[in-house]
Amino acid sequence: MARLDMPINAEMECATESNSVDALFELGIMYAAGREVSPNLVIAHKWFNLAALQGNRAALKYRKEIANEMSTAEISVAQKLAREWLDK
Length: 88
What we know:
The protein has one domain. It has helices spanning 8-18, 21-33, 41-53, 57-67, 72-87.
């Protein structure tokens, strides 16, 4: 089954287990665009941040773009979620 055909939970599990920069980036896209999930810029920022930390330049660009639409408090929450994910 292609990664894009996986259910959301399976995709998240794949990203978590493999720490794949592509999977992390795709999760950011999904939440930013509301593709197969409700749009959530905080969660999108989290996934883009994690992908950017692994060198994905597109994730860095998208993270900056959505940050312009977020409050400082929302960005803080997204960063906290990313740190918590890294600590797992």
